[in-house]
Amino acid sequence: MAIPVVHVTLARESASSTVLKPITSQQLREVFPDSRAQDLGAPDLARVDWGVLDYFGWIHPAGSRGYVILPLQDELRGITLRRLMNASGKSRTHMCSWCHHVYRGRGTAMFSTQVAGSDGRRTIGNYICRELDCSLRIRNLSSDPPTYMPETIALKHKIWRLESAVTAFMHRANLLEDTL
Ligand SMILES: [Zn+2]
Known about the structure:
By secondary structure, this protein is of the alpha+beta class.
């Protein structure tokens, strides 16, 4: 099976110092046209601190679904994820594959999505911060303990790496082919 070539990391590099512009409820419905607004379970958009976000992610109050919106080439892209909490009782370190935050115990969850166009036959998944709060993690804005394995790289590199990871995940889910 052919592996799609990912060009988008370069396209995002120049924009990596920008933060998310506030997203309106109208845009939210446009990004997820198949869902009714009340089914999305999004937080109150007026209370979101957009200035510290690289992507907008939230967990549906029911707990088993997550949503991520990422601006890409001036267009908002969304992905719906299933969340499976880490049920293992063992205490060991877990790293978020998007922001590289390392947790001593449970802090990540398995997020998966069906590959678009595969009729549900193919699913991809990643271990990601379980509240989809990577942007707060890389800025040390979370009230939880900081990462177990601190890095010395600059914040702008962490932002670029995070955006690249989310973009690559969307590519693997077959959601971005029209941007190439
Ligand atoms: Zn993360």
